[in-house]
Write a structure and sequence with these properties.
The protein folds into three domains: 1-70, lambda repressor-like DNA-binding domains (434 Repressor (Amino-terminal Domain)); 107-185; 200-256, no CATH class. Helices cover 62% and strands 0% of the residues. The protein has helices at residues 2-11, 16-23, 27-33, 43-53, 57-60, 74-77, 81-89, 94-102, 106-118, 121-144, 151-158, 163-185, 200-212, 218-229, 239-249, 253-256.
């Protein structure tokens, strides 16, 4: 609910002070309505803000996605039963679907889709042109004894348009700016990741590289690498903690091969007895 109050104020490009003057609701109250988890809001304030923004109270309280048409007739929307069930099911993001359809370029996308699906004139022209090119190519090959690798024959072959590929590209180009605009509009959303945010894998790799490239003994690098994955600052370790940690790591068969054994006496080797 709090997001609706914040979004509407931002859409209207108003500060809390300006909204206070225009609605008569105190700045502190308006700020509390935009805070996450807010529950204390008067009926009068809801009605006043809904009237000011020109939206329904249900929309303002997050109970509906419709700002201005709370009593829309489904028959007027000409939706199929399947579409109504899908929208009610929660299996798709209805908000995103609405933004897609409300975009200024969505109509062009629907027109191109209709042309492809209903095989209107453009589709027929493509097939007609392909038929003419195929016929001319075949006649020339038979009369002149040319093969597929002839420059002219290859040119006529490439001049033919694959209808599915052509419309797939066209429809994708229609959708691309729409999707880009919607993504841009949501880049400041709480649930949208920052484009510069490292993935967990990238972060782990960078931490390991930093640990292994630092100055110090092999023991120190191994400890740094281990602690970096646990998000523990190596430099905060005391000498006693470091020695204890090395002692623990020495118990691992995987770590023994990496940790230096300098200063330790190698175990005595048994002599093989000579056979008599």
């Amino acid at each position: 609910m709090h997001e609706r109050f914040w979004e509407l104020r931002k859409d209207w490009k108003l500060t809390l002070e300006q909204l206070e003057k225009q609605t008569g609701i105190s700045k502190s109250a308006l700020g509390s309505y935009e805070a996450e988890g807010t529950k204390d809001i008067s009926h009068w304030a809801v009605v006043r803000l809904a009237e000011f923004y020109g939206v329904t109270t249900d929309y303002l309280l997050g109970l509906s996605v419709m700002k201005n048409h709370p009593n829309a007739d489904l028959n007027d929307l000409r939706l199929s039963d399947e579409m109504i069930e899908l929208l009610k099911s929660g299996r798709i993001n209805n908000r995103l679907l609405c933004e897609l359809a409300a975009h200024g370029d969505f109509r062009r996308f629907m027109l191109d889709l209709e042309i492809y699906v209903d095989r209107i004139i453009a589709s027929m022209r493509i097939r007609n042109n392909n038929t003419v090119l195929k016929t001319e190519r075949k006649v020339l090959m038979e009369r002149a004894g040319l093969d597929d690798n002839d420059l002219n024959m290859r040119t006529l072959e490439l001049a033919q348009i694959d209808e599915d590929n052509y419309f797939a590209y066209t429809i994708f180009e229609d959708l691309r700016p729409i999707i880009r605009d919607i993504r841009e509009a949501h880049k400041s959303d709480v649930t949208t990741a920052d484009a510069d945010t490292e993935s967990p894998a990238e972060k782990a790799v960078h931490q390991l590289e930093a640990a292994l490239n630092c100055e110090g003994s092999k023991e120190e690098k191994i400890v740094r690498a281990l602690l970096s994955q646990l998000e523990i600052d190596y430099d905060t370790l005391t000498k006693e903690e470091f020695v204890t940690l090395i002692g623990i790591l020495n118990k691992s068969e995987h770590m023994k091969k990496h940790i230096s054994r300098r200063g330790k006496v190698p175990p005595p080797q048994r002599r093989k007895r000579k056979k008599r």
